[in-house]
């Protein structure tokens, strides 16, 4: 979006400057004309029709229609552009006409941005010329939100359809990025209750119901326990006190673990803590293959543990 003070076309291509008729192609001198009521007569007495005139007395543009009457008190389409004339027939320029904006040329602005110096805000005029309100406008890969009064939202949260979005100081919707402890998805909405894997941090994060990431402790998610560090990073393949979290991040329970760092087997009980300093009765299956009976944990029991096997 280009930041322009105005988005306007050039002025009328054919016009009367009192005393001089000119076009973009050539300039021709003429004697000064005069108003007669709401019509305009050239020096030779001929009535001006379907043409623009600029009145130096009023310092304003007027348009004489096919019947010779000046346009006034409403919109008029000249060529392929729409112009607004007040009750005195003066062309409106650089101003709002209800939901529409007319440029310095007087033409109604369409499909363009306008910056209102007085209100210090951007507005977007749609294909019909009306300002966008309560809606998103997409330009290229970027999205902008126009509020109820038509002003472009910036540096703020936008709530729409039950979702929350954030637009930056340029009015652009943020996507696939962190904003504080919140994460904005590829569609721009604030994620609530879901897992996020961030390649930049090579870590999983869990977004809670309030939209912030879980951190500094344990959380039970879908029946499993996970530990999150400061900053929301998921703890994986490590001991957390008496507990161990697997590669998935889930706390191990009722399961054997061989830790290469300690070169030893550990048994994680039903509550997730490791068994120590005593006896444990562990129900374990023996798998019989056509080669031999295989019972993996028996090879790694510590001296302080006795395994009582219950065959299934």
TrEMBL record:
Signal peptide: none annotated. The keyword Magnesium does not apply. Keywords: Repeat. The keyword Cell membrane does not apply. InterPro entries: Cell_wall/Cho-bd_repeat. This is Putative mannosyl-glycoprotein endo-beta-N-acetylglucosaminidase.
């Amino acid at each position: 979006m280009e930041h322009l003070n105005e988005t306007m076309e050039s002025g009328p291509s054919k016009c009367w400057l009192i005393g001089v008729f000119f076009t973009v192609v050539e300039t021709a001198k003429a004697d000064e004309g005069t108003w007669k009521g709401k019509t305009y007569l050239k020096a030779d007495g001929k009535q001006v029709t379907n043409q623009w005139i600029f009145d130096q007395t009023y310092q304003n543009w007027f348009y004489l229609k096919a019947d010779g009457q000046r346009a006034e008190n409403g919109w008029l389409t000249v060529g392929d552009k729409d112009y607004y004339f007040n009750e005195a027939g003066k062309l409106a320029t650089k101003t709002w006409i209800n939901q529409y904006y007319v440029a310095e040329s007087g033409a109604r602005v369409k499909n363009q941005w306008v910056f209102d110096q007085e209100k210090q805000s951007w507005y977007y005029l749609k294909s019909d010329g009306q300002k966008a309100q309560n809606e998103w406008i997409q330009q290229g890969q970027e999205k902008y939100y126009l509020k109820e009064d038509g002003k472009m939202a910036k540096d703020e949260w936008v709530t729409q359809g039950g979702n929350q979005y954030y637009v930056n100081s340029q009015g652009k919707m943020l996507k696939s990025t962190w904003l504080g402890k919140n994460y904005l998805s590829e569609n721009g909405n604030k994620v609530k209750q879901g897992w996020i894997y961030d390649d930049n941090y090579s870590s999983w994060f869990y977004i809670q119901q309030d939209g912030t990431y879980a951190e500094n402790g344990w959380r039970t998610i879908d029946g499993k326990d996970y530990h999150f560090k400061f900053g929301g990073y998921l703890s994986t393949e490590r001991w957390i006190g008496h507990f161990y979290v697997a590669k998935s991040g889930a706390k191990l329970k009722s399961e054997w673990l061989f830790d290469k760092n300690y070169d030893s087997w550990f048994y994680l009980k039903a509550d997730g803590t490791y068994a120590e300093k005593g006896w444990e009765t562990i129900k374990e299956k023996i798998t019989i293959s056509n080669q031999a009976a295989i019972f993996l944990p028996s090879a790694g029991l510590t001296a302080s543990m006795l395994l009582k096997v219950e065959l299934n």
